[in-house]
Design goal:
homodimer; Double Stranded RNA Binding Domain
Chain lengths: 246, 246
């Protein structure tokens, strides 16, 4: 605790921007940051990152890696406790729906993180980086974890992230088309392949094209920004074409 | 703490098997369990699980889901701190090498968990379940997390799991053949596809066959128990065939 108090002393030396950032963090996280530099790093998108002397880009991507793991664990425990009678397949799938990019993008807007990012990126094209809000939210989780520890982060995620989800609604309304299709193919003993036809675009903007082949015959195609989404889209099209009940 | 002390009272009522299990856990984990039933569940493989009244199989798979997440987070933080100057791609890949099934199987043998599983499964064919040791190790992590909390689990993972890895050696000796191949194809502007040709086997035993197609021509094939491994194997074969330097 002594170290953290010492760090609080630094707040006296904050410049104007740092004061604003600290206030924003307090508003979002519920408590003033101990180590503000972690949060500065968390909102540093790779596209605005400077290169350090040894050629490393100083961006939030490492924090995002850590935050992604912490978020996954806390959502896992939340679901584990909330659904004591559901199997691990259900838990895995429900979690992937909660921590997916689009959902996290929306949460980032709701908690005010998007506004902070827009200020940080001023003058730059945010639309070129579709997942910047969600990515930054994960990096923020990583920063909170390093700054305040696991218990604090868990509380933040439960009270300020998961609360925005209607978990029962998520379970009822989403369907994993790929699973449905594979189930069907096994029941019908038909061999099924998911073929990645092509990947186009550049590092930031990708489009995957997936084709579904059943017993050697192409049945449907799907496109998406990830292979998973393209497979889902293709599976959805195949289910419609083959009249597979959803 | 009161609850946990109460639970310790239960130790007075342990039967012979429970006493042995508690002693084994103490030996492996470094401390007596508070709630022994979590550990009983952790070593309950799906193949020996009973069905509950509502048709749910009571096995360690839910704990494995939770433990997998906790293990991933703690290894993520360990690597984050150990390698301050490496990017998130490196961190992701190194983690996946540490928490892979084969490595976890070996750790389970080293810490004595395999012995416990063999006793639990006596008379049954363990070889039919290749990843039972590693899966159970993850379930054990899940049980420790629920029983003792995050800090205790972190200590267990750092002191009793990660210690068995020579992380520097892992980094130096393993190669991601798929990345190498994709890098090469981008440099040479050749279109590359990873085609999943077939999946054979049953629920427990799977074999994936992947074919690599470059500019429409099949170049190499690979087999493996997961799609990822099959892709690695196929990529390795392709790299050899095309004389791509590793």
């Amino acid at each position: 605790m002594r170290l953290s108090r010492l760090l609080r002393l630094q707040a006296l030396l904050y410049n104007k921007n740092e004061k604003r950032l600290a206030a924003s963090i307090k508003h979002m996280v519920g408590s003033k940051p101990f180590n503000l530099s972690l949060y500065k790093l968390a909102i540093k998108h790779a596209s605005v990152a400077e290169e350090s002397i040894n050629g490393l880009k100083i961006s939030n991507e490492r924090l995002e890696f850590l935050g992604d793991a912490v978020l996954g664990t806390i959502v896992a425990e939340f679901l584990f406790i909330k659904f004591p009678y559901r199997d691990e397949g259900f838990l895995t799938e429900t979690r992937s729906r909660i921590v997916n990019r689009e959902a996290l993008n929306q949460i980032a807007v709701k908690i005010g993180l998007a506004k902070l990012i827009n200020e940080e990126m001023r003058g730059r094209n945010i639309n070129a980086h579709k997942s910047i809000y969600g990515d930054t939210l994960e990096a923020l989780v990583g920063a909170i974890y390093l700054d305040r520890g696991y218990a604090f982060t868990k509380n933040f995620i439960l009270k300020r992230i998961i609360i925005h989800f209607d978990v029962d609604d998520i379970i009822n309304t989403t369907t994993n088309f790929k699973s449905k299709l594979i189930e069907w193919s096994q029941k019908e003993s038909k061999e099924i392949d998911f073929e990645l036809v092509s990947v186009s675009g550049n590092q930031r903007f990708k489009e995957f094209l997936v084709q579904i082949i059943i017993k050697g015959e192409p049945v449907a195609e799907g496109k998406g920004p990830t292979k998973k989404k393209a497979e889902q889209e293709a599976s959805k099209n195949a289910c419609e074409k083959l009249n597979i009940p959803i």
